[in-house]
Specification:
There is one protein chain. This protein is mainly beta. It has no helices and 5 strands. A 5-stranded mixed β-sheet has the order 3-2-1-5-4, with no helix packed on it. The N and C termini lie far apart (89 Å).
């Protein structure tokens, strides 16, 4: 009997928003919706002096159901312009 090959389950990625704590210099990463319990979670991001992007990556969910990857939302692609303006030739 052969062993079943189990591929590792990919860790879900959640997009976060940086929020300051009112009245302090502390920042938090806010997860809009947890993939496990659908609640809103907060993760410490450091202070105003620190680089908050250093705290992105894989973290445990506060609900205790597993881990997910904190990531910033991808930026939209820049739209292409119309190009250089065309000049009108003299009116005849």
């Amino acid at each position: 009997m052969a062993k079943k090959s189990r591929a590792p389950v990919p860790t879900p990625t959640v997009y976060v928003q940086l929020l300051p704590m009112p009245g302090t210099k502390v920042l938090f990463w806010a997860v809009g919706e947890c993939p496990y319990c659908a609640a809103r979670h907060y993760h410490p991001a450091g202070t105003v002096r620190d680089d908050p992007t250093e705290r992105l990556g894989e973290v445990q969910a506060p609900c205790g159901n597993g881990a997910y990857v904190l990531a910033l939302e991808p930026r939209p692609l820049r739209k292409r312009g119309k190009g250089p303006p065309t000049r009108r030739l003299g009116r005849s």
